[in-house]
Design goal:
Pfam families: NAP. It comes from Nothobranchius furzeri. InterPro entries: NAP-like_sf (IPR037231), NAP_family (IPR002164). The protein is of the alpha+beta class and 360 residues long. It is built from 10 helices and 8 strands. The longest helix is centred in the N-terminal third of the chain and has 51 residues.
Length: 360
């Protein structure tokens, strides 16, 4: 929904039956004296210049991100090695300050179960020595709503082979972009060691509407060709159809491949239309693709362990609940105030616009 349009459509009823509607920007400007309007135009030129400076600011931010990505990478490489079992962390590296209250609560349960577990030890099957953290990335995919919506059951066996996800930023002098790299161990599904998704960005005001600039935005994305092993492509499925010959009446069965829902369709994204003309479904798919790419870059890759444990999602949920509770209290206060005129517009009752992930 166009937020600016929605705000302009707010109408405050009055007892006389007439409606007072805020004047549009063009109407306000047209009502100004010519000498004042002239000065407003000068301010608009200054504002457009500010937008151009802001665009340069974000270009430098992108360079700063690229610089610090190189500092993060050794830590992310160590994370990958621990996940895959290539490296076993030392006792010192595994030390982590736990919540003492939780430890005390668990202590009693452990003591109670100790005797039972000791009795079962002789009968229990020895646990295999597991390497690393099994199904680390798959667990994240299954736990995060945005990713689980894309995940199909036939994808899970493949994602068990996912070793790492990395973000790479475009080099200086190149068009602004970032690349998601999905690193896989050798598997029986495809030959690629790395699957990539490039998100192209721009950080410049639109000459026809410079005041709409709010920072870099994703404008397109490119996937990669997956070299599937024969019969292992989960992005298509084979269906059989019976066909009857019109003249002879002979029935034959033909098979053909049709698209199949899969996370791996992520690497074959819908393309932005050069002329900007797209149907509603295509626009939604494109916006969703941009949002997912941004989410991988800003949340999943930097904070992977917290999404694995669920702590990151708990933080997000707590924030949303706090926002909701504040809104509920405001509504209750409004409803309980009998002195307010029912027809008066109250900004507290206006539905808040959803927080959108900037297509950055």
């Amino acid at each position: 929904m166009d937020v600016s349009k929605a705000k302009g459509d707010n109408v405050t009823p009055n007892p006389g039956g007439q409606t007072d509607k805020p004047p549009s920007a063009h109407l306000v400007e047209s009502m100004l004296p010519k000498v004042v309007k002239r000065r407003v135009h000068a301010l608009k030129r200054l504002q457009a210049q500010c937008a151009n400076i802001e665009a340069k600011f974000y270009e430098e931010v992108h360079e700063l991100e690229r610089k610090y990505a190189a500092l993060y990478q050794p830590l992310f490489d160590k994370r990958r090695d621990i996940i895959t079992g290539t490296v076993e962390p030392t006792d010192a590296e595994c030390e982590w300050q736990s919540d003492m209250d939780e430890e005390e609560e668990l202590a009693a349960e452990v003591k109670e179960k100790a005797s039972i577990e000791d009795a079962k030890k002789e009968e229990a099957t020895p646990e295999e020595d597991q390497k690393g953290i099994p199904e680390f990335w798959l667990t994240i995919f299954k736990s995060v709503d945005m990713l689980s919506d894309m995940l199909q059951e036939h994808d899970e066996a493949i994602l068990k082979h996912l070793k790492d996800i990395q973000v790479k930023f475009s080099e200086p002098g190149q068009p602004m972009s970032f690349t998601l790299e999905f690193h896989f161990e050798p598997n029986g599904y495809f030959n690629n060691a790395v699957l990539t998704k490039v998100y192209k960005m721009k950080s410049e005001p639109d000459p026809s509407d410079p005041f709409s600039f709010e920072g870099p935005e994703i404008i397109d994305s490119d996937g990669c060709q997956i070299d599937w092993h024969k019969g292992k492509d989960v992005t298509v499925k084979t269906i059989k159809k019976k066909q009857k010959h019109k003249g002879r009446g002979v029935v034959r069965t033909v098979t053909k491949q049709v698209p199949n829902d899969s996370f791996f369709n992520f690497f074959n994204p819908i393309k932005a239309s050069p002329d900007g003309e797209m149907d509603e479904d295509s626009e939604f798919s494109l916006a969703t693709d941009f949002e997912i790419g941004h989410f991988f870059r800003e949340r999943i890759v930097p904070r992977a362990v917290l999404y694995f444990t669920g702590e990151a999602m708990e933080d997000d949920e707590s924030f949303e609940e706090e926002e909701l509770e504040e809104g509920d209290e405001e509504e209750q206060d409004d409803d309980g105030d009998e002195d307010d005129d029912e027809g008066d517009f109250d900004p507290k009752k206006e539905q808040p616009q959803p927080a959108e992930c900037k297509q950055q």
